[in-house]
């Protein structure tokens, strides 16, 4: 996995069927990348539900949450609508897993992203990373603690 | 992540059982969540079996984006709590998970024989809403990753109610 203190590589992925999001356009935001194996699978859905429910807390820390998996933009659209997600799901679909590989969180055996959380600060440096066992939903306590620490350091 | 309860059990909590109990179980739950509904009778059995050895605390964790009635149900329990009937409402909500719309909740309130006008006012109370929001936040900071989530003596328990019951059967006897 990419290391703390490294510059985050820029990337651009589809967030909706006709719209892309790039890291560089989120210049004044902390960015939380939530890599997960697959839409619709039970653990991921629970994990993303907690991230969704925590949106007020992420707002407090000027943090934008981006989910990323290798599913296609159409699959993401349907999944997000079903679960009422308010944050974008990015399609690391073509070339498959390219952005996951950039951050070194791609599982070559399964052909899916690993379950990882990466916090990128406003200067686009890697501030905090967490790799979770694939079957375990990590919750949001670790990332919220990291954001709290980041905010205190800056102020 | 090895998580623990960031906000220890305190006087604002709803607590069942002995304050001197050696085992403290905190549940973060959602009245509309079917897994919490399945956990409900298991917790009752644990309480019946272990009696004074168990202190049980319920904290609200309504997953509002997937459960549209969960927040009002949490408010209903808190509002009933102001009239001394938190646990009675907590039980009724879990026993009527399929009828938690406004009409359903009012029927439950009538069954509990609470002051209905007061109950309806309290359902709008900003203080109660803040209590629920604070509970959600404390849960997130403590590593709640879905519902129900249990903490035993402050440490996150990575399992469901049945796993908890099995563990207690093994360790307490």
UniProtKB/TrEMBL annotation, chain A:
Domain Thioredoxin per the UniProt entry, residue ranges = 2-152
InterPro entries found in the cross-reference section? AhpC/TSA, Peroxiredoxin, Peroxiredoxin_AhpC-typ, Thioredoxin-like_sf, Thioredoxin_domain
Oxidoreductase found in the keyword field: yes
User: Could you tell me the Gene Ontology terms of the biological process aspect for this record?
Assistant: cell redox homeostasis; cellular response to stress; hydrogen peroxide catabolic process; response to oxidative stress
List the GO cellular component terms.
cytosol
Which molecular function GO terms apply here? thioredoxin peroxidase activity
Q: Which SUPFAM superfamilies match?
A: Thioredoxin-like
- Say yes or no: keyword Oxidoreductase present: yes
Q: Which residues form a coiled coil?
A: none
Highest taxon of the lineage: Bacteria
Entry function: Thiol-specific peroxidase that catalyzes the reduction of hydrogen peroxide and organic hydroperoxides to water and alcohols, respectively. Plays a role in cell protection against oxidative stress by detoxifying peroxides.
Write out the similarity annotation.
Answer: Belongs to the peroxiredoxin family. AhpC/Prx1 subfamily.
Q: What is this protein called?
A: Thioredoxin peroxidase
Organism of origin is Sphingobacterium hungaricum
Lineage here is: Bacteria, Pseudomonadati, Bacteroidota, Sphingobacteriia, Sphingobacteriales
TrEMBL record, chain B:
**InterPro entries with a match to the protein in the record:** Thioredoxin-like_fold, Thioredoxin-like_sf, Thioredoxin_domain
A single GO molecular function term of this UniProt record: oxidoreductase activity
Q: Write down the PANTHER family for this protein, in alphabetical order.
A: DISULFIDE BOND FORMATION PROTEIN D, GLUTATHIONE S-TRANSFERASE KAPPA
Tell me one Pfam family matched here. Thioredoxin_4
| Entry keywords, A to Z | Disulfide bond, Oxidoreductase, Redox-active center, Signal
Q: Which residues form the Thioredoxin domain?
A: 1-173
Question: Is Manganese given among the entry's keywords?
Answer: no
The entry assigns this protein to a family as follows: Belongs to the thioredoxin family. DsbA subfamily.
- Name of the molecule in the record: Disulfide bond formation protein DsbA
Source species of the chain: Sphingobacterium hungaricum
């Amino acid at each position: 996995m990419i290391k703390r203190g490294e510059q985050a590589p820029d990337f651009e992925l589809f967030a909706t069927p006709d719209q892309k999001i790039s890291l560089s356009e989120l210049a004044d935001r902390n960015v939380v990348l939530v890599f997960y194996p697959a839409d619709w699978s039970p653990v991921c859905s629970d994990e993303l539900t907690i991230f969704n429910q925590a949106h007020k807390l992420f707002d407090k820390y000027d943090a934008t949450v981006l989910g990323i998996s290798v599913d296609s933009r159409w699959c993401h659209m349907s999944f997000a609508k079903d679960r009422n997600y308010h944050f974008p799901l990015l399609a690391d679909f073509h070339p498959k897993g390219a952005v996951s590989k950039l951050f070194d969180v791609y599982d070559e055996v399964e052909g899916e992203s690993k379950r990882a959380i990466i916090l990128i600060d406003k200067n686009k440096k890697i501030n905090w990373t967490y790799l979770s066992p694939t079957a375990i939903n990590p919750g949001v306590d670790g990332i919220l603690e990291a954001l709290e620490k980041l905010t205190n350091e800056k102020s | 992540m090895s998580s623990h309860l960031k906000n220890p059990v305190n006087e604002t909590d709803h607590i069942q059982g002995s304050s001197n109990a050696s085992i403290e179980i905190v549940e973060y739950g959602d009245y509309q969540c079917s897994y919490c509904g399945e956990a409900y009778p298991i917790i009752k059995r644990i309480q019946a079996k272990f009696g004074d050895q168990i202190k049980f605390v319920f904290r609200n964790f309504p997953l509002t984006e997937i459960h549209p009635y969960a927040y009002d149900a949490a408010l209903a329990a808190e509002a009933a709590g102001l009239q001394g009937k938190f646990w009675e409402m907590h039980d009724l909500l879990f026993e009527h998970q399929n009828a938690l719309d406004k009409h359903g909740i009012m029927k439950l309130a009538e069954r509990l024989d609470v002051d209905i006008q007061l109950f309806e006012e309290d359902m709008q109370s900003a203080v109660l809403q803040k209590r629920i929001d604070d509970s959600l936040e404390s849960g997130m900071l403590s590593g709640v990753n879905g519902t129900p989530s249990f903490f035993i003596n402050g440490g996150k328990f990575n399992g469901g109610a049945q796993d908890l019951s099995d563990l207690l059967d093994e360790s307490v006897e």
